[in-house]
Design a protein that fits this description.
Elements: E1 4-9, E2 14-18, E3 22-26, E4 30-37, E5 42-50, E6 55-59, E7 61-64, H1 71-83, E8 86-96, E9 107-115, E10 128-133, H2 135-138, H3 146-157
Parallel strand pairs: 4-9
Antiparallel strand pairs: 1-2, 2-3, 4-5, 4-7, 5-6, 5-10, 8-9
Length: 169
């Protein structure tokens, strides 16, 4: 039996001590989606300021699953909030523990084919900027975010990037 006590409880995480030895970060499940924008034949990302590393990085649309949602509902909501596109087709890429050494967070990744006439950020509380890139530009872009790199690799492996050439990064 694991004995645990809570050291800190915030809005989006909790830190527990387990068996008086392990610091464990408790987080809600998260989602992320690599978006193919059908009208423009491009992939959509967001430039997102991340205070923990004090950098703006390029990453896939992502967010937390709310208590009354399943991951597919959450990713559709995040796509609408962050880039303003409508999901036409959604394919699961799998679920993963991004940092199992200290956190119980699970991230559910998707490939989304989306439509819309323009990119719009529908949640002004977010500190991000939607951007679209040609696939050949994505393969040469420095990506520092693991979920983004994994979503690209899995989408390519599953032949979901059929619209694009076979690049590598």
């Amino acid at each position: 039996m694991n004995l645990q006590r809570t050291l800190f409880k915030g809005n989006f995480l909790q830190v527990d001590i387990v068996n008086e030895k392990y610091e464990v970060v408790r987080r809600p499940h998260a989602v992320g989606a690599l978006i193919y924008w059908t009208e423009c034949d491009k992939l959509v990302f967001v430039k997102h300021y991340r205070p923990a590393i004090d950098k703006i990085i390029l990453e896939i649309v992502a967010g937390l699953v709310e208590h009354d949602e399943d991951p597919s509902q959450a990713v559709r909501r995040e796509i609408d909030e962050e880039v303003g596109l409508s999901v036409e087709n959604l394919t699961s890429l799998g679920s993963f523990y991004p940092t199992p050494g200290y956190s119980d967070e699970v991230t559910h990744l998707f490939y989304a084919e989306c439509s819309g006439s323009e990119l719009n950020m529908n949640d002004p509380s977010e500190n991000l900027e939607p951007v679209s890139l040609k696939i050949e530009d994505v393969w040469t872009t420095v990506l520092m975010d693991m979920k983004t790199s994994l979503a690209l690799c899995l989408s390519k492996e599953k032949h979901l990037l059929k619209h694009f050439g076979n690049g590598s990064f």
